[in-house]
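Worked example (supplementary).
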Amino acid sequence: MQAEEKLTYETWPAAPERATLEAKNKFLGFWLFLGGETVLFSSLFATYLALKDKVPDTSQPLAKDLFELPLTLVATMLLLTSSLTSVYAMYHMKNFAFKKMMLWLGVTVLLGLGFLGLEVYEFNMYVHEGHKFTSSAFGSAFYSLVGFHGAHVTFGLGWILALMIRNYKRGLNLYNAPKFYVASLYWHFIDVVWVFIFTVVYLMGMVG
Amino acid sequence: MSTIAQKKGFGAVLWDYLTTVDHKKIAHLYLIAGGLFFIMGGIEAVLIRIQLAVPNNDFVSAGAFNEIITMHGTTMIFLAAMPLLFAFMNAVMPLQIGARDVAFPFVNALGFWLFFFGGLFLNLSWFLGGAPDAGWTSYASLSLHSKGHGIDFYVLGLQIAGLGTLIGGINFLVTIINMRAPGMTYMRMPLFTWTTFVASAMILFAFPPLTVGLTLMMFDRLFGANFFDVTMGGNTIIWEHLFWVFGHPEVYILILPAFGIFSEIFSTFSRKRLFGYSSMVFATVLIGFLGFMVWAHHMFTTGLGPVANAIFAVATMAIGVPTGIKIFNWLFTMWGGSVKFTTPMYYAFAFIPSFVMGGVTGVMVATAAADYQYHDTYFVVAHFHYVIVGGVVLALLAGTHYWWPKMFGTMLNETLGKITFWLFFIGFHLTFFIQHFLGLWGMPRRVFTFLPGQGLDAGNLISSVGAAFMSAGVMILLINIVVTQVKNVKVGNDPWGDGRTLEWAIASPPPYYNFKQLPLVRGLDAYWLEKMEGKKGMTPAEPIGDIHMPNSSFIPFMITLGLFIAAFGAMYHVNDKPWAIPLLIFGLAVTFGSMLVRSFKDDHGYHIHKEELTQDEKGAKA
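After joint prediction of all chains, the assembly is encoded as:
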């Protein structure tokens, strides 16, 4: 199958994200990239665990003084739900239902923005409590790990939005279907990383 | 293609190379850029040996010496050895699997430019206030206190170059998994392709820890973070771990493709199938796996405790087993073969004893208790030069002679090639053999001078003389290259006459679409198999049809240029320069803007039509 072909609901393949050689390459290449990203975040997690609560003096807040579970729970729910809505979007993509796909991608972006807003609010709150990027090794490690994730969320939002704007008028074809699919893979990956951050940083932070 | 290039003006050729996405041209770029950095690293090595030739020398100052050794190591590993291997991977691997290009031609170009600008940034440090001076390992406790911007150049330059290597690795992996010609099963892939595959997988998992380590160092030095600052709760050992979790696999990323090059050469010039092919593949994969389990053997004296030291010592020694398998397989390949002593075969032959010596001292330094004696002495310097020079550099020189005809369509002069070999080989052993003993006699690593009368004078002088021999060898190689290209005598598909793998089945240099018809692969050493059955070339696996090709693009250059500019902004931000942060933002905007353009502009490539392909053939015959 060719990327330029005009397709209809009837001729749309079952796996449009892998229908052409370019798409197959993109699909595999992105999975491999996510493998590398896993190692990247593992290194950041290891650094965080080594430097957790490592502060220069007792005036600095520790993990158990800082984190508030209700706030992060809401953020977690927003991000997990956005992962689900991106699954809906890909379901409609596979059914050649462009408008429905765009709708669910839109919901995904809104949920992602909500998460990002909460993260900015949360960081702002910590800074006012004296937990800064430059105030201790703990602060540096915390903001690096969670901030790297936040930067990934921001990039993912920009990516999905760019795809939506670019393809708004022309609908689905075999050239852009793998692009949407790969962006949603990225979004899932961000979600999985957050599950680990929620566990390792926040839940383990609460128990001391 | 080269005939077309001759008709073009210089500007057109330059633009062609700036925008190319053709793996063969990117291979040229890697070879030229890597070669230039190799010469720079070599000049730094010569400066080191001049300074250490006699006791109490003041040829360079202590500070300059630190900069020179740091840049020598960093340049040789990141900017010479890796890109030169990437040159051969790009030039040969797609041909060996019968592909028309790599999976992501655009990403391939991007990877090259990232490496090149990263290397350029690093080397600009010489002109902008001093080079990095904390050793190529740049341990945090030392580098955090290094004055000036040297370490910042190291951190940002390697970050950019490392990104290029990472995406290059992903590209090769996808190419090998998805783009093999019909019949090219995994267990029919040539060994160089196999080692490229395993090395690329290692790149994928080894480079992210380096990325994180460099990022943390950047945050500490430029943005006020405290990862490695003990007074703020930081921990300097984190850098050592992150660096060596990358750094040790890196050694195997370098040596595995070198093994691949030698495997090709041994079987070609023994005119015999590689002995124990499947055990070679197994050993390659096993080395790749074990390579991730041994990083702490660089940190035996850090104080991780006897249990950790013992585990890492045993794991390290275990790597000797698959490596031994390989050594014996190469020997048995030659055994009973009809060996032809060409220049590449000289290197391959000399590689075995040289590398085995490096391996033996490797087991010695892997013995944790004994390592407390060897650590930070010239014994270690001798060890890693025996594996890197005796393994990787010999492979690069061998590969240059072996694949030069395939890359450029001309044959390097064999006599000059053999002179290069003897000069380099003698010089190599002269330089580094004595360093084992200098180390055992107590000469520490990274000292800028030594006192007379301590029994170190003669050894150091011998070592310096050896460096002169190696330099002479490299110069003869350069002369050889110039002479060959000026004479410009074109050769045919299979100039060695004994080619076994698919790259020798097509023209030298190959047409820009590589294979007019994808070949049908019927077994290991696909081309040899056909030749032995009296056929002239490969049996095509498809009728002549349109070929899909990617478009050239300037965007990879722009994406990289943005990061290059941003790096200056990040670096001068600590000097409170008002333009630093705007420059950083501008650079990142160029990068992300270029990415957006790439995303928004559809790029379907183009087709070479059937008629053009058949006309090409007629034109060639006329």
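Two points are worth noting when inspecting this output. Helices of chain A lie at 21-51, 63-66, 69-94, 98-128, 137-167, 177-206. Chain A has six helices and no strands.
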